[in-house]
Structures are given as C-alpha cells and as structure tokens.
Amino acid sequence: MAEFDQLITFLKVNDISRSLRFYKEILGLPQVYARDGKVIILKANASSFIGLVPAELPAGAQRSSALTLIVKDADAWLPRLDTAGVPNKGKPIFKSEFGIYVLYATDPDGNTVEFLEMRDPDWPHAGDHG
Questions:
Q1: In the chain, where does DSSP find H-type helix?
Q2: Per-residue pLDDT band at 23 (split at 50, 70, 90)
Q3: In the 8-state DSSP scheme, what is residue 29?
Q4: What is the spatial distance between Cα 47 and Cα 49, in angstroms, rounded to a whole number?
Q5: CATH code, domain carrying 34
Q6: What is the phi/psi pair of residue 96, to 5°?
Q7: What confidence score (pLDDT) does residue 121 get?
C-alpha cells in the first residue's frame, strides 16, 4: 500500500476572509501557509491540511465537495456551530449501515462539512498501529 506523508484537501471559496473566519475562528484551525493571495493552507492535524483557493463560484450552484472531519465527540460541535450561526442539519445522526455518527454543517461557500465519529470498530483510528 502506498503511504503518503501528508494530505491537503483544497476547496474553492468566493470570499477568502469569510472562509478564514469559518475555518480559523469557528473551527479553530491554525493557518500554516499562504501564497500571494492565491492559496491559504490551514492545519487540521499533523498530517492533514485544508487549502482555500479564491475562485468565482456561481451563487446557488450545487457544490459537490464534502469535507469530513473525524472527531471524538460530534455532539460537542453542535452548540459551537449554533452559537456561530453556522447552518447545520441539527443533532448528529447515527447511520448504522456505515457505523458512523455524523453532524452535517455547511461552510460559507455551500460545501458540506461533516463532523463524524467513526464508530465501526474496524476503523483505523489515529494512534492505532497495524
């Protein structure tokens, strides 16, 4: 199996300032890199990053991107998102067919952001070896 050193997920955004408020202030991700207003990289963990790229996105156009953040406690995110006025689908739901407990929210550009607890015992959680 190929192993990669790090992973960056890039998202196109209409308004970089608005997106930075969401990802830095609301989600708490630190900015670790920027390049002449062309890209801003935020750190999700030691090996995973989110890249924000300014782009013109048509209003109301369907977004196909989903950013899934594996978390220990999906319930803990709902009050934080509600307080910040982040659109979401309410309380997390358990999807037994996938072994997940997930809270769905939407970023400022209409991308789905999932706060997901992987409850399947076969999932290789961070820190697992093997």
A1: 16-20, 77-83
A2: very high
A3: P
A4: 7
A5: 3.10.180.10
A6: -60, -30
A7: 87
Is 129 domain-assigned?
Answer: no
Burial level of 80, CB count in 10 A (0-12/13-18/19+)? middle
Alpha-carbon distances of 58 from 55, 88, 113, rounded to whole Å: 10, 21, 19
Query: Given the DSSP bridges, would you call strands 7-13 and 66-70 parallel, antiparallel or unpaired?
Result: unpaired
Residue 69 is assigned to a structural domain of this protein:
yes
Residue of 64, 60, 43, 62 whose CA lies nearest to 52: 43
Q: Which of 16, 20, 22, 26 is nearest to 53 (CA)?
A: 16
Unique residue bearing structure tokens 């998202």: 11
Return the SS3 of 123: coil
| Residue pointed to by tokens 């192993």 | 3
pTM exceeds 0.85: no
pLDDT, one tens digit per residue, over 83-108 is 999 999 999 999 998 899 999 999 99
What sign has the CA pseudo-torsion 82, 85, 86, 87?
positive
Based on the fold, state whether residues 30 and 72 are members of the same structural domain. Answer: no
Q: How many CA atoms lie within 13 A of 125 on its CB side?
A: 10
